């Protein structure tokens, strides 16, 4: 029997009778991380890392949630599972499942570069690797972290010098805190959209090194925060909420900003090429490092990436999943084109 | 190249006109002359020609990146732009070049002349010494597809600021047949006068679209004539020679040899603005008759007799060597009339006749008749207005007849490129013929970005079959297609070809069985072809 199977509720382990990141109600769910397309309400019981738990509780409320530390083995039925750093967002994990000496690993979402906040990704040797490939095309190659730091702070400082607010769209869990961590607070005050602030507070309480921020409320005197950096959800950028900042310079931090067409269509002044998913070199490096001869790809440019892996000698397959992907959600009204571009292929 | 890439980035990062002008003016104050000159050339559409095929560039880039061609093509499909795809898939540059833009353009020309192995190596070396944005621009230049979201008006404004002269003078200086190889920054923009070059045309004055004739105010202030459906041309007669310019600033003297005879009837120092029309008897032929002459550098005899051209003159810009553009239109028109009245029919010149009217209602009626007279609407010119520069609101209006329309169903969709990559924007439409659907036109404009996003989501859910980049979709979405003309075409399944087809409206209200039929198209062809 296969270690993991693919069902219409999600990835399933028959030997342990549990699902990983299921999208429909099941008795027992193991979660890789707290993004809403991976952590959904309605499961009988949950298991996640101790570092991911606070955000999951914050988002899903009163649930039956058990926690586990990175690297700690746990027997569930006839399977042994352990969680390993995925580097995607703080607390995110790859899930290793071993049954009768055969090991499969579910990557969840991951990136191989160290963002300074998330426990860095590490390879987990396995027989079969189920890898996301949101950015599985060779045109995606991320700007190095230090260069991003300079780009963002330079943009902010230049706006601040002109007395303009910098309005930056970043997904509320992960991307927003990664940006906060890169900011130089000596430039000007940092403000946050409510959705960003509440997650940031949860992570700050967990002890992550995040700068002081002020939540934007109707009562807030914006004149008292000249040249501020405002971190907002991407969908808020073009909303009435954003109008209060007047002639602000706008930007989005997303992997999609690597493409000029999408950057221009997004209609912001700047696009920072920053993703919490692996880029093309990252995906290839990660897969190689697992040593797995068998690879299943899911979410993203699956058809092309599978064909590429086959040409590299892997036994590769495609798994259809219901993960919308934070990068895509992060686009706000979304490159609907991109979500849908992948949907029929994933269904094939 | 760094400065140029920085300029490009600044222009790319804003949609605000003032910010663009400021970015350009800063650049024109600081960059080396050779770079400035090339920038003006590039931004005014004077791109170096492509000398290396797109296929070669694609092959070299894929090979260098260690990628199979199918993966390159897959990526190209997502990115939507060849140069961008190339610059993204190549490994990061290992060297850094401080060379300016002019150096890279010179290098590009040198490489084009080299035999294959050296040329390939030269391009690979260039790619390896240019970081991302510079590599993208260099490749854009290589593929001859360099474009930038800056209008010539905007660049002119910046040049005027940077060189401290009036915009009209800069516009005039930039006209005509120059290239960075034939001139210098000083000669083009600083020394002498724009008129020193006797072949140099004046900037064309362009009309705005009129939506409501009530905007005109007092009818007495206006002159009306037909909006002729030909090629806008400026005929220059100076020092015993003639030069003919198109509105796109192409020198087209040799394409229309009929106009050479104008010097037999008009004195030197005359410049006419008018419409080149294929002419027969006492009326123009349709634009279709002119079509075969557009692409030809020299004209075979047969065409000269089937589609002889005249210049339908409607303005006089220079008389006796004097620039009379500042004079009121009424005055220029009177001079034009006395110049052209009484010419024999063999002269290749006609005077655009006035459309008489007393009231706005007279004009409305005249517009409805325009198509019968072989025109595409009316032109309205303020009698007191000088001849301007470029498109300005207020003094010249075009009031086109309503387009011909037909309701059709979408059957194929294809993604656009550049800004529209990943959006389905290019559609094929069909009319019904009994139980069959017959494709008859493509269209890719007329919808808003929001509508394109909506239709893209729809196409993704209703794709029946994929043919490479083309999706066949369920025939459900009905659109009203507008077009300016129709002609018989044996190359098309439907037997017709349309001029300027575009989507006027997405007819959510209309079911597919109510679309127009092939017979409707044929009737339109009989009436307007």
Write structural notes for this entry.
- The complex is a heterodimer of chains A (348) and B (529).
- Chain A is an alpha/beta fold.
- Chain A has helices at 53-60, 145-161, 175-182, 194-205, 260-266, 280-290, 302-311, 326-329, 336-347; strands at 5-7, 10-13, 18-20, 28-30, 45-49, 65-68, 74-76, 79-85, 93-99, 102-106, 128-133, 166-169, 190-192, 214-215, 229-232, 249-253, 270-272, 294-300, 315-318.
- The two termini of chain A are 24 Å apart.
- Chain B has 3 domains: 2-142, DNA ligase, ATP-dependent, N-terminal domain (DNA ligase i, domain 1, Orthogonal Bundle); 205-400, DNA ligase/mRNA capping enzyme (D-amino Acid Aminotransferase, Chain A, domain 1, 2-Layer Sandwich), CATH 3.30.470.30; 404-528, Nucleic acid-binding proteins (OB fold (Dihydrolipoamide Acetyltransferase, E2P), Beta Barrel), CATH 2.40.50.140.
- In chain B, strands 4, 5, 6, 7, 8, 9 and 10 form a 7-stranded mixed β-sheet that branches. In chain B, strands 14, 15, 16, 17, 18, 19 and 22 form a 7-stranded antiparallel β-sheet that branches. Chain B has a 4-stranded mixed β-sheet with strand order 2-13-11-3, covered by helices on one side.
- Chain B is globular, with a radius of gyration of 26 Å.
- The chains are: A alpha/beta (348), B alpha+beta (529).
In short:
Chain B: One of its GO terms (molecular function) is DNA ligase (ATP) activity. The complex is a heterodimer of chains A (348) and B (529). Chain A is an alpha/beta fold.
Distance between the ends of chain B: 51 Å
Computed structural class of chain A: alpha/beta
Going across the major beta sheet of chain A, what is the strand order? 7-8-9-10-11-18-19
CATH architecture of the largest domain in chain A: 4-Layer Sandwich
Task: Using the alpha-carbon principal axes, give the shape of chain B.
Answer: globular
Largest sheet of chain A: 7 strands, mixed
Question: At CATH's second level, what is the architecture of the largest domain in chain B?
Answer: 2-Layer Sandwich
């Amino acid at each position: 029997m296969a270690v993991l199977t693919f069902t219409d509720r999600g990835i399933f382990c028959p030997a342990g009778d549990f699902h990983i990141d299921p999208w429909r109600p099941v008795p027992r769910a193991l979660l890789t991380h707290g993004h809403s397309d991976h952590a959904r309400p309605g499961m009988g019981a949950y298991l996640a890392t101790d570092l991911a738990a606070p955000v999951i509780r914050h988002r899903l409320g009163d649930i039956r949630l058990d926690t586990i530390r990175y690297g700690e083995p746990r027997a569930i039925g006839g399977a042994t599972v352990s969680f390993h750093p995925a580097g995607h967002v703080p607390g995110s994990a790859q899930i290793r499942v071993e049954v009768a000496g055969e090991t499969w690993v579910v990557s969840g979402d991951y990136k191989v570069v160290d963002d300074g906040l998330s426990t860095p990704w590490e390879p987990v040797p396995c027989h079969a690797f189920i890898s996301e490939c949101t950015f599985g095309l060779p045109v995606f190659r991320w700007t190095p972290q230090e260069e991003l730091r300079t780009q963002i702070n330079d943009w902010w400082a230049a706006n601040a010098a002109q007395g303009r607010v910098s309005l930056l769209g970043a997904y509320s869990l992960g991307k927003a805190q990664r940006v906060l961590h890169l900011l130089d607070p000596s430039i000007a005050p940092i403000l946050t959209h409510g959705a960003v602030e509440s997650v940031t507070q949860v992570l700050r309480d967990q002890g992550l090194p995040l700068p002081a921020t002020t939540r934007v409320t109707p009562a807030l005197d914006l004149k008292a925060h000249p040249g501020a950096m405002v971190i907002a959800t991407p969908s808020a950028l073009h909303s009435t909420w954003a109008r209060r900042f007047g002639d602000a310079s706008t930007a989005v931090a997303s992997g999609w900003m690597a493409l000029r067409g999408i950057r221009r269509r997004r209609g912001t002044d700047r696009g920072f090429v920053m993703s919490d998913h692996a880029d093309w070199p990252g995906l290839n490096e990660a897969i190689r490092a697992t040593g797995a001869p068998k690879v299943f790809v899911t979410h993203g440019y699956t058809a092309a990436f599978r064909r590429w892996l086959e040409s590299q000698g892997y036994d590769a397959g495609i798994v259809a999943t219901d993960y919308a992907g934070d990068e895509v959600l992060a686009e706000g009204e979304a490159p609907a084109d991109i979500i849908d571009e992948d949907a029929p292929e994933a269904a094939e | 190249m760094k400065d140029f890439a920085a300029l490009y980035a600044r222009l790319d990062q804003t949609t605000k006109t003032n910010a663009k002008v400021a970015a350009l003016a800063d650049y024109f104050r600081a960059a080396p002359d050779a770079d400035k000159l090339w920038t003006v050339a590039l931004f005014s559409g004077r791109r170096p020609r492509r000398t290396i095929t797109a296929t070669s560039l694609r092959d070299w880039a894929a090979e260098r990146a260690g990628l199979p061609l199918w993966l390159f093509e897959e990526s190209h499909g997502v990115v939507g732009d060849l140069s961008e795809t190339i610059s993204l898939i190549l490994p990061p540059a290992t060297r850094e070049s401080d060379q300016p833009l002019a150096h890279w353009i010179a290098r590009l020309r040198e490489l084009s002349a080299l035999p294959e192995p050296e040329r390939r190596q030269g391009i690979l070396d260039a790619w390896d010494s240019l970081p991302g944005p510079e590599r993208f621009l260099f490749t854009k230049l290589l593929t001859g597809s360099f474009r930038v979201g800056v209008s010539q008006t905007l660049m002119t404004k910046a040049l005027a600021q940077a060189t401290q002269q009036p915009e009209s003078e800069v516009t005039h200086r930039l006209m005509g047949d120059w290239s960075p190889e034939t001139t210098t920054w000083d000669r083009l923009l600083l020394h002498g006068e724009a008129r020193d070059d006797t072949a140099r045309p004046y900037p064309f004055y362009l009309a705005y679209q009129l939506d409501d004739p009530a905007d005109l105010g007092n009818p007495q202030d206006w002159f009306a004539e037909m909006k002729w459906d030909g090629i806008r041309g400026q005929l220059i007669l100076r020092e015993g020679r003639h030069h003919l310019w198109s509105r796109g600033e192409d020198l087209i003297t040799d394409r229309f040899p009929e106009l050479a005879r104008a010097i037999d009837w008009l004195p030197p120092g005359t410049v006419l603005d008018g419409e080149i029309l294929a002419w027969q008897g006492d009326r123009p032929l349709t634009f279709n008759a002119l079509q075969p002459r557009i692409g030809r550098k020299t004209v075979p005899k047969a065409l000269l007799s089937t589609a002889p051209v005249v210049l339908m003159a409607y303005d006089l810009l220079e008389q006796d060597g004097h620039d009379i553009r500042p004079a009121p239109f009424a005055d220029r028109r009177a001079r034009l009339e006395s110049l052209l009245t009484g010419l024999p029919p063999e002269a290749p010149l006609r005077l655009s006749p006035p459309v008489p009217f007393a009231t706005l209602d007279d004009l409305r009626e005249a517009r409805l008749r325009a198509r019968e007279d072989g025109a595409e609407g009316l032109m309205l010119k303020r009698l007191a207005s000088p001849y301007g520069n470029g498109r300005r609101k207020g003094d010249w209006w075009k009031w086109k007849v309503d387009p011909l329309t037909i309701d059709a169903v979408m059957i194929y969709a294809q993604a656009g490129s550049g800004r529209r990559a990943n959006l389905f924007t290019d559609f094929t439409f069909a009319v019904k013929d009994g139980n069959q659907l017959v494709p008859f036109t493509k269209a890719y404009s007329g919808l808003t970005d929001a509508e394109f996003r909506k239709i893209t989501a729809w196409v993704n859910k209703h794709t029946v079959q994929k043919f490479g980049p083309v999706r066949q979709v369920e025939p459900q979405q009905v659109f009203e297609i507008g077009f300016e003309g129709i002609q018989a075409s044996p190359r098309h399944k439907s037997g017709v070809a349309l001029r300027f087809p575009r989507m006027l409206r997405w007819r959510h209200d209309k079911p597919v069985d109510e679309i127009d039929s092939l017979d409707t198209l044929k009737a339109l062809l009989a009436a307007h072809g």
